[in-house]
């Protein structure tokens, strides 16, 4: 928020240097990012110096107006240029002497050739040697005003635009000051200013106004606050019977206030008001619209002005009824920015009996806007549900000053005050008559919390000892109502704040307020004095970290993705091209947990597949490298039909793409990774965790390639599935032509099987006996089952079993296959004899024949 210093001084006296003020505001939570000087001397600079510096992390920038050279001037007459139609010559007085000033400002052309003006035009006048910004170059380019001859006329001074003085980027015409501007006064004395650019966090959005910042300064410095005068003069007829209000949904619109002003004259606002609005970052439009914006920036209550006569016409000549309601299906509205907007069913509208007038709390409609023909203005001030406003802003992809404030919470008490202030400014600047009274529909007044706490709570929360009167003084300066009952304070929240909670939350909020105003920098750093909590392990977290380390050591890289996604994005993992609704049972819209207030249309639901998230990352990374080995450990969110809250199991997702090795100057394996590379990673996890009894079984999952997919089974439970993505699924992603290896494991199913203790055996000291065994078995018998049978027969004497060859062909027979294993026999206490090896081999072969019907291959 941009806060002009001159505007602040309307509400509070500031007796400390502006840099010190910025530091104190920053320490209180209102971070002053920049101080921009507009005409006033820059701290520590020579006269006229323009530039910037960095002091205490607050940027200092701006321009100084030389008080001897830049003054208020008065144009007495506008004469035609003798040699140029697009230039004029102005006879101008600087309070000491007259000058002929050459200019091409279009807003002076209407006065050309009229002779001496009945009332001088007051302007910002720069003499020869002045340092200004170049009004004809982009950005801020500093130039020196030197004497020159232009089209035969000597030019040595100028009437300035706002851009040349650093007020705004406006350069189409010269500044025309208000009539009371004193001729000859240094312009810096008349309208020099400094602008504090404050970054407001959402928890202090109550300070998104000049009065709000002045409140903070008053609390920090002890200077008394001057509140705006809300006692307005109402000379018009009564408002009763001229407009009515109907609120359909009070939780979305707890208050709605209307005021009326008649016989207004639409014209530009006084220049001082235009200047303040521009310094605050807003564009002046006309005196009525400017009054709504000016009052909003003053008090923090957004206002909206309607052309009252248009509303009467829409009501068929009767008194209009203003209605607030949700949008009907298919309803549309053309807003002030000229865009026809399709309205969502949750959007709250301000309507009359003929239809919508504006999007509540966000932007007005074009049909009832104030125009040059407007003579009677109906002024709205209201309160809106901030969550609904946020949702509307996101859905409509719109940003507005009103939406900024309402989306962070504006107290309903501010509605009437804002209307009164807005009507007063309209009365002053338009000459209109304010109708007597306001129409106020207030169905849902909020309860301003009263929080109880004691000085002992302050000591415990903040680590400082404050006296009762110190605590009470701090909170009273923040406008809390304080009552002391024994050792306890009862603090009543002021009616401009919505950020103070009840109970323990409210106490925490008050501790923050006391700390802010006392000064964070004054709170001493102390060691922890409380008793340390009992140290307990967190096995679930420890196992997760251990698995993360294992995967990194296996050569994979961790990624972290958003838990919020879109159903369409996840459906890419289940829906084949041209198959329509394939996989809808898993990823239908109704099955998802929807985000109540999504930040964008691409992030609307909580994810149900961690693998889909990692594939999205892999897809983006393919533009940088072909080889990827990624993993993520995180939660997915599965709806529970009998529960409002979802189940949140933790999963492990793995994606591997590309060659086995990165290409280097040395020879490396550039063949693509396949199913067994991914299987090896999963086996590596199990080995490092010492999980026993795992088996891999064929699986038939639509998202995976047939015959290249398996499930991991432990203790009869499926822990996860993995394999190569189906080619049709792969087409849904912009991925390279390599096989896409992907898998997802249930962390919750794996962790309970990790043993707390496991057996450690010493390294063998006796030599092993290694022999190969080729077996012919039925085609449908898995190799893992054969290995299991070998270990059953060999017992502890068989230390290793490795499959090294699979053969199918004429010698194996129809419907059969040959599996060749390398067996290692190695007891821990001796070297086996040839006879013992022969007996062991015979026992294994016999067991395989009896259990699996296997036979030795000839």
Architecture overview:
A seven-stranded mixed sheet has the order 30-33-36-40-39-38-37, sandwiched between helices. It has a five-stranded mixed sheet with strand order 1-14-2-4-3. β9 and β10 (142-144) form a beta hairpin. Residues 46-56 and 577-589 have low confidence and may be disordered. By secondary structure, the chain is α+β, with helices and mostly antiparallel strands. Helix content is 25%, strand content 27%. The radius of gyration is 39 Å and the shape is elongated. The chain has 22 helices and 44 strands. The longest helix has 19 residues, at 834-852. α11 (455-462) crosses α13.
Task: Walk me through the topology.
Elements: E1 2-4, H1 5-8, H2 18-27, E2 31-39, E3 51-55, E4 58-64, E5 70-80, E6 88-93, E7 98-103, E8 121-126, E9 131-133, E10 142-144, E11 148-150, E12 153-155, E13 158-159, H3 187-191, E14 193-199, H4 210-221, E15 244-247, E16 255-262, H5 271-279, H6 287-299, E17 303-307, H7 308-314, E18 321-326, E19 332-334, E20 340-342, E21 348-352, E22 355-359, E23 363-364, E24 377-383, H8 386-396, H9 401-406, H10 414-430, E25 433-434, E26 439-441, E27 450-453, H11 455-462, H12 468-477, E28 481-485, E29 488-492, H13 503-518, H14 539-553, E30 557-558, E31 564-565, H15 567-571, H16 584-587, E32 605-606, H17 610-621, E33 628-635, E34 638-640, E35 643-647, E36 650-657, H18 675-689, E37 694-698, E38 704-714, E39 717-725, H19 727-730, E40 740-746, H20 747-750, E41 769-778, H21 783-794, E42 798-807, E43 816-825, H22 834-852, E44 855-856
Parallel strand pairs: 2-4, 15-18, 30-33
Antiparallel strand pairs: 1-14, 2-14, 3-4, 5-6, 5-8, 6-7, 8-13, 9-10, 11-12, 16-24, 16-25, 16-26, 17-24, 18-21, 19-20, 21-22, 22-23, 27-29, 28-29, 31-32, 33-36, 34-35, 36-40, 37-38, 38-39, 39-40, 41-43, 41-44, 42-43
Helix pairs in contact: 4-12, 6-10, 11-13, 21-22
């Amino acid at each position: 928020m941009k806060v002009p210093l001159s505007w602040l001084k309307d509400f509070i006296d500031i007796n400390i240097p502006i840099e010190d003020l910025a530091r104190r505001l920053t320490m209180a939570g209102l971070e002053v990012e920049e101080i921009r000087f507009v005409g006033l001397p820059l701290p520590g600079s020579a006269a006229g110096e323009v530039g910037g510096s960095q002091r205490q992390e607050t940027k200092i920038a701006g321009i100084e107006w030389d008080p001897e050279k830049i003054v208020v001037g008065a144009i007495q007459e506008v004469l035609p240029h003798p040699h140029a139609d697009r230039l004029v010559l102005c006879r101008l007085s600087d309070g000491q002497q007259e000058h002929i000033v050459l200019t091409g400002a279009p807003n002076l052309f209407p006065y050309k050739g009229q002779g001496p003006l009945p009332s001088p035009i007051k302007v910002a006048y720069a003499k020869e040697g002045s340092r200004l910004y170049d009004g004809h170059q982009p950005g801020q380019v500093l130039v020196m005003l030197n004497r020159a001859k232009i089209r035969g006329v000597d030019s040595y001074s100028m009437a300035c635009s706002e851009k040349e003085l650093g007020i705004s980027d406006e350069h189409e015409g010269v500044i025309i000051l208000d009539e009371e501007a004193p001729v000859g006064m240094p312009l810096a004395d008349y309208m020099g200013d400094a602008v504090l650019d404050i970054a407001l966090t959402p928890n202090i959005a109550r300070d998104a106004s000049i009065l709000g910042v002045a409140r903070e300064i008053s609390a920090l410095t002890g200077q008394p606050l001057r509140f705006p005068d809300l006692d307005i003069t109402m000379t018009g007829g009564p408002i009763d019977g001229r407009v009515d209000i109907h609120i359909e949904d009070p939780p979305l619109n707890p208050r709605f206030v209307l005021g009326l002003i008649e016989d207004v004259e639409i014209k530009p606002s006084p220049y001082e008001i235009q200047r303040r609005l521009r310094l605050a970052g807003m564009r002046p439009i006309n005196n009525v619209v400017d009054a709504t914006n000016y009052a909003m920036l003053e008090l923090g209550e957004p206002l909206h002005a309607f052309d009252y006569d248009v509303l009467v016409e829409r009501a068929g000549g009767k008194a209009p009824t203003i209605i607030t309601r949700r949008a009907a299906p298919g309803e549309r509205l053309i807003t002030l920015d000229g865009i026809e907007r399709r309205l969502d069913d949750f959007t709250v509208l301000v309507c009359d009996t003929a239809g919508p007038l504006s999007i509540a709390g966000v932007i007005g409609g074009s049909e009832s806007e104030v125009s040059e023909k407007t003579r009677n203005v109906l002024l709205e001030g209201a309160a809106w549900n901030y969550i609904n406003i946020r949702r509307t802003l996101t859905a409509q992809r719109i940003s507005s000053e009103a939406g900024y404030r309402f989306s962070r919470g504006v107290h309903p008490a501010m509605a009437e005050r804002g209307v009164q202030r807005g009507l007063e400014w309209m009365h002053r600047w338009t000459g209109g008559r304010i109708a007597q009274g306001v129409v106020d529909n207030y169905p849902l007044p909020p309860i301003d919390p009263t929080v109880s706490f004691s000085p002992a709570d302050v000591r415990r929360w903040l680590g400082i000892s404050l006296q009762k009167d110190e605590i009470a003084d701090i909170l009273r300066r923040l406008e809390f109502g304080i009552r002391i009952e024994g050792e306890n304070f009862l603090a009543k929240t002021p009616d401009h704040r919505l950020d103070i909670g009840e109970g323990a939350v409210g106490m925490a909020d008050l501790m923050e307020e006391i700390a802010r105003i006392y000064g964070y920098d004054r709170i001493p750093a102390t060691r922890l004095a409380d008793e340390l909590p009992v140290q307990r392990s967190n096995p679930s977290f420890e196992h997760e970290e251990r698995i993360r380390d294992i995967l990194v050591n296996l050569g994979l890289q961790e990624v972290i993705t958003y838990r919020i996604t879109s159903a369409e994005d996840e459906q890419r993992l289940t829906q084949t091209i041209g198959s329509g609704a394939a996989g809808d049972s898993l990823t239908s819209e109704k099955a998802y947990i929807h985000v109540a207030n999504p930040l964008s249309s691409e992030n609307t639901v909580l994810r149900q597949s961690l693998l889909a998230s990692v594939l999205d990352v892999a897809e983006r990374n393919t533009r940088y490298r072909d080889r990827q080995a990624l993993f993520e450990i995180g939660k997915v969110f599965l709806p529970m039909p009998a529960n409002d809250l979802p189940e949140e199991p933790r999963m492990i997702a793995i994606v591997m793409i590309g060659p086995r090795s990165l290409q280097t100057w040395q020879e490396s394996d550039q063949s693509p990774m396949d199913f067994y590379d991914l299987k090896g990673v999963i086996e590596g996890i199990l080995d490092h965790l010492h999980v026993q009894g795992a088996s891999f079984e064929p699986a038939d999952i639509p998202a995976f390639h047939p015959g290249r997919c398996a499930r991991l089974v432990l203790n009869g439970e499926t822990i996860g599935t993995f394999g190569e993505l189906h080619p049709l699924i792969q087409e849904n992603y912009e991925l390279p032509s390599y096989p896409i290896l992907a898998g997802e494991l249930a962390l919750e199913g794996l962790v309970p099987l990790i043993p707390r203790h496991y057996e450690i055996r010493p390294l063998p000291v006796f030599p092993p006996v290694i022999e190969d065994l080729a077996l012919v078995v039925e085609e449908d018998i898995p190799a893992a089952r054969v290995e299991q049978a070998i270990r059953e027969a060999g017992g502890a004497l068989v230390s290793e079993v490795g499959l090294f060859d699979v053969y199918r062909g004429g010698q194996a027979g129809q419907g059969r296959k040959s599996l060749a294993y390398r067996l290692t026999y190695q007891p821990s206490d001796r070297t086996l004899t040839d006879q013992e090896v022969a007996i062991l081999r015979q026992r294994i072969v016999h067991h395989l024949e009896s259990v699996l019907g296997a036979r030795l291959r000839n």
